[in-house]
Amino acid sequence: MASKKKSRFRKSASDYLAQTHRPLNCLAFVLPLLVAYEVGAVFYSDRLLAPQHLAVMLEHLGVAARFLPAGLIIAVLLAWHIISRDKWHIDAGAVGGTLAESVIEMAPLVGLAILTERIIGSASLAAGGADQALAAEILTGIGAGIYEEFLFRLAGIGLVMLIFVDLLKASKKSSAVLAVVATSVLFSLYHFIGPDAFDFRLFVFRGIAGAYLATLYVARGFGIAVGAHACYNVVVALM
After folding, report:
1. Residues 6+ apart with CB under 8 A from 98
2. What is the helix, strand, coil percentage profile of the chain, to 5?
3. What distance in Å separates the CA atoms of residue 216 and residue 218, rounded to the nearest whole number?
4. Can you list the residues of the chain whose pLDDT is less than 50?
5. pTM
């Protein structure tokens, strides 16, 4: 009897692990966050660079609209779902589990921030700009979690894997390691675009944080990577 219960538990856990990777479940989790950010951006000053840069890239392709970057994320996840030939079924348990797991997976980022702050004096847990209202800080943090994970994890890691695995026929494991390292370095450097001067301590923290989020994306899926990133940003805003 005990072995049957263990077997059912393992099957249930295995199903959940697979369900969190499904693009339709990821979309169901990300969509409310995306809508909240986009609606909030209408009322607050939108200082987030990632959707602005996505909009510029789309303009170069001849398309421009206010909510096009958000539409692109939705379209990519839907296209991924269609290509996967998966069922049009959203697993509510997996979506709820993604939220709970996002909070859990956020904890190592907070621990990393505290550790690096003590070791190298990085101001990684400092709050955002004092000129922004708390609600705006929270919405910006949620938006960063969505758009940066889309750019650097879903698109960035996907592009590296496409080039090295599909085109160059390189090892999948070594290509995944390369993708994690390369996108993490770019992720860290990306945060210094704008008025902020380069800070090596922050560069190290963000690079390690990027590597953690990239590993989380590969191991647990896009939704949980977004959730952990957004949760950390909200904690920073509240602090």
Report:
1. 20, 25, 26, 29, 221, 223, 224, 227
2. 80, 0, 20
3. 6
4. 127-131
5. 0.89
Q: How far is CA 234 from the centre of its chain?
A: 14
The b-or-e profile of 176-212 (16+ CB within 10 A means b, else e) is bebbbebbbeebbebbeeeeeeeeeebbbbbbbbbbb
Q: What is the pLDDT of residues 170-201, one digit of tens each?
A: 999 999 999 999 999 999 999 998 777 888 88
CB-CB neighbours of 112 under 10 Å: 17
User: What three-state secondary structure class fits 51?
Assistant: helix
**Tens digit of each residue's pLDDT (9 = 90 or more) over 135-168:** 888 999 999 999 999 999 999 999 999 999 999 9
Alpha-carbon separation of residue 105 from 113, 128, 179, 228, 229 (angstroms): 14, 22, 21, 6, 9
User: Count of alpha carbons within 13 Å of 134, Cβ hemisphere only?
Assistant: 4
User: Nearest CA to 27 among 180, 162, 213, 226?
Assistant: 226
Of 30, 89, 34, nearest in space to 224 by CA? 30
CA distance 165 to 105: 28
